[in-house]
Write the structure tokens for this entry.
Amino acid sequence: MVGGHGGPIGTWTPTEAYRSRSRLSAFARGLGVADRTALDIVARQDPAAYWRAVANWLGFTWQREPTSTVDQLSSPHTTQWFPGGRFNLTDNAVHRWVREGRRDHLALVAETEDGEGNRLTYGELADQIDRAAQGLHDLGVRPGSRVGMQLPMVVEAVVLQLACAQIGAIVVPVFSGFGASAVAERLGLATVSVHVVAESVRRRGRNVPLRESVATALAEVPSVRSTVVVGGRRDHPVGALPGEVSWEELMSSTAAGCAPYELDSSHPLLIAFTSGTTGAPKGVVLGQAGFAVKAASDAAFCFDLAPGDVASWITDPGWIMFQITVLGGLLAGSAVGLYSGAVDHPGPGRLWEVSRSLGLTMLGVSPTLVRGLAAAAPQPAPDLGCLRVLASSGEPWTPDAYSWLFEHVTGSRLPIINYSGGTEVSGAILSNTTCELIHPCGFAGPLPGMGAGVADETGRDVAEGLGELVLANPSPGMPTTFWGDHERYERTYWTRWPGTWVHGDSVLVEPGPPPVWYIRGRSDDTLKVAGKRIGPAEVESIVNSVDGVVESAVVGVPHEVKGEAIAVFARLGPETDLPAARAAITEAIVSRLGRPMAPEAVHVVTDLPRTRSGKIVRRMVRAVHLGDTVPDVSALEDACALDAIRAAR
């Protein structure tokens, strides 16, 4: 692999056009530093001053200026950002641009699987937000009320998110594909009073109804007094869902509409539920101003979004990348693209058709999606239209999938912004940018202001090698708490090494210059074989390179001599010879990693458990294989996949 701009093998090197328009470079120059490395040094010396400079550079409107940038109170996990300030995210994401003369500029462009399109200017979006905010107010929604959102990637999801932020309601996003029990658990934990749900979602040419499962879920959530149905039919029995009204009825208020409320800087924006390894889902509470500063700066610095761009991510409003892309993009001044449906239906070229029809300049995908597209029948290199930046998140890349996207799809011309952090920090900890060298599958390093480093098993900082991803200082996008369980919040991130945020990712830093960072998976998945630590993703990459292997999961199992040994669970293609595949997998691991890393067992399975966003859940593979208690299965795409582990050969 040779990068298209003269860089080392496999790298992307920015052209002068990328360098000259980089918003990160412009920000760095404004602070009198040359590049991201120098900017990170400045940020580590004084994180509060750095984030104050970021907030000022973004040009946000404060209804009342904060008295300071940060107040840590008694400890890092009680940090308050921009104390004393009054701020409204929706005012800055939409109404600001109307005031600045962009009323008729594109804000949203949407398309469905059936090809139906919709476009809204900032003025039109502002009008819809005002009417939705008034409709929610008429339903009794007030600052602090929790509003559930179970919608596909449609305009109504954006309007709802922004209308709630406008009046201080707290959105509780729920994945549109969840079953009744998972929906009920999340809405119940947040004591949601109003739930907004789609009548159905369109998927692979058919309508998937949601009404029946939602009715089952809401029967278990007595706090829900009103249900707003998007795309509902009028022939349903009245009262089938609690306090049911249609979206059209919500939007029909003749009142003037609710103007943006003045809210405390840390007023909750959303409760984003993430699954833990044990117990109930964690309700991560993210504040308005902190989320806005982090998401907007990521949009500008990582994806280089600016007025005139159109950004989209292949995701669902129930996952945090929806809020990061939509809200971050609008706050940074770009338009946002939405696609509702399967991006590989009716064929693998559909994704690139959608990208062209939406006029995307930035597109975010998952490595799982790319692996699926690459595995389809050979396709010619697509026409990428005006696409300028690709991005990825959610899991580590495999070299083959990355190479296919970089070489085959982009002709080695476009940057792939690897972006990793998540719900708990409102964006990225590690990322690439458009103004520096990008190594395949890796990260250029920590984003300035995050204070990221690597710690060994004792908590000591290490400059290179495999270790735990840690943050030395708070940042604006961090949670204020877990909803209803602050002790769990402290225990999850702050107690292993007091005063240090332990993120839960295993990272590998290869020395430079420049150093390259890699995510090797969740740290609770990290293997320690005969005293040697290795990330499961590294082993899986080797397994997946063997002929006949479709995908795999690698977990650690107890071993009398080594302490822990490798167990491989591989899904094979049709007509693959099982004994030969097992031998080839073992040989590949031994030849690449050495004889001590030889797998204890290679199991062949028909399926692997994965989340609805496509990530294989190793801890469930391990738990089922060892007969341990299986963690929360509500986030699984198909819980029956666990039976495939039980039946492994």
Remarks:
- The CA atoms of residues 146 and 190 lie 7 Å apart.
